[in-house]
Design a protein that fits this description.
alpha/beta, single chain, 2 domains, nine-stranded mixed sheet, Spore Coat Polysaccharide Biosynthesis Protein SpsA, Chain A, two-stranded antiparallel sheet
C-alpha cells in the first residue's frame, strides 16, 4: 500500500519521568544513543512508509529539531573527518518526509489520532505509539499492513503476556481465523482483572486503520478520564457486523517497553548488549555486576 502514512502521537506530558521530562519531551529520552522516537520513525520507514506525521504538544519543539538538519554541526564533523558521527547525525534528517501538527489540549489518544485527519485524508494509515519499541529484527508493521490489505479491517497488534500482568494492558476477546497469527477481535477490555480478562492477548501500541476510523472518532464521546479513547472507537468498529471489523496480528518477537522507569532501563540494557560496538564490553561487566547482588 504505497499511499499509507504513519501517525506518531507524541503530545503526552511524560509525568512518569519527571523531573527529566520537565523541559525535555519524553520521546527524546535516549535509548542507548538515539532518542526513543527515532526508533519508531525508523520502524515506519522500514515498513516502506515515507510520509510521517508526528502529533506534538507544548514544549515538544526538540522533536522537530531532532529531525531537522544542523548545518553547523555537520560542517564541523566534516572538517574533523568524523564520518561515522556525521552519518549518524544526517540519518535522522534524511529518514522520511516528516510533518508536525499540534494536538492543542491533551484530550486522549483518540483525539490525537483525529488531529491527523487533514494530513491523512482518505488513505489508510498506521499509528505507532512511542512507548513500545519493536526490534528491527522482528518486523511487525509489515505483517499488519498486509493483513489490512487482505481484509480491509482495522488491525491491532497483540502480544501474549503473563495472565497475572494482563491488568496492565487492554485485553482482546478473539475468534480464530484461517490466517496464521491473525485473529478476529470481537471486543476489547481495558485493564481487566486477571479473572475477568477475555484472553492473555494484550494490545500493544501499533495499529493500521482505515480512513473511516476518523468518522467514528468524530462521534466518539469522552470516555475514561474524560478523554476520547481510541479503544472505544475500535470497539464500535469490532461490533459492526456490516463492516470489515477489527483483526489482530499476534506478535511473538522482541518488544521493548519504555513506558516507565524500570522498563526504560531494561530496554536500554537489552538493546545495548546486542550491539556489535557495545555488547562485547557490556556483557562481561553485567555478569560481574549482577553476580555481586
Amino acid at each position: 500500500m504505497s499511499t499509507i502514512k504513519a501517525v506518531i502521537p507524541a503530545a503526552g506530558l511524560g509525568t512518569r519521568f519527571l523531573p527529566a521530562t520537565k523541559a525535555m519531551p519524553k520521546e527524546m529520552l535516549p535509548v542507548v544513543d538515539k532518542p526513543a522516537i527515532q526508533y519508531v520513525v525508523e520502524e515506519a520507514v522500514g515498513a516502506g512508509i515515507d510520509d510521517i506525521l508526528v502529533i506534538i504538544g507544548r514544549n515538544k519543539n526538540a522533536i522537530s529539531d531532532h529531525f531537522d538538519s544542523v548545518p553547523e554541526l555537520e560542517v564541523r564533523l566534516q572538517q574533523k573527518g568524523d564520518q561515522g558521527r556525521l552519518a549518524r547525525v544526517m540519518k535522522s534528517s534524511d529518514l522520511a518526509d516528516i510533518h508536525f501538527v499540534r494536538q492543542g489540549e491533551p484530550k486522549g489518544l483518540g483525539h490525537a489520532v483525529l488531529r491527523a485527519r487533514t494530513h491523512v485524508g482518505d488513505s489508510s494509515f498506521a499509528v505507532l505509539l512511542g512507548d513500545d519499541l519493536i526490534d528491527e529484527r522482528d518486523p511487525l508493521l509489515v505483517d499488519m499492513i498486509a493483513a489490512h490489505e487482505r481484509t480491509g479491517a482495522a488491525v491491532i497488534a497483540l502480544m501474549e503476556v503473563d495472565p497475572a500482568s494482563i491488568h496492565l494492558y487492554g485485553a482482546a476477546a478473539i475468534d480464530s481465523t484461517d490466517a496464521n497469527g491473525v485473529v478476529r477481535v470481537t471486543g476489547l477490555v481495558e485493564k481487566p482483572a486477571a479473572e475477568d480478562a477475555p484472553s492473555n492477548l494484550a494490545v500493544i501500541g501499533r495499529y493500521v486503520l482505515p480512513a473511516s476510523m476518523f468518522e467514528i472518532l468524530e462521534r466518539t464521546p469522552p470516555g475514561k478520564g474524560g478523554e476520547i479513547q481510541l479503544t472505544d472507537a475500535l470497539q464500535e468498529m469490532a461490533a459492526d457486523s456490516d463492516g470489515p471489523g477489527v483483526v489482530g496480528v499476534v506478535f511473538r518477537g522482541r518488544r521493548y517497553d519504555t513506558g516507565d522507569r524500570v522498563d526504560y532501563i531494561k530496554a536500554i540494557v537489552q538493546l545495548a548488549v546486542d550491539r556489535d560496538d557495545l555488547g562485547s564490553d557490556l556483557r562481561p561487566w553485567l555478569k560481574e555486576f549482577t553476580s555481586g547482588l
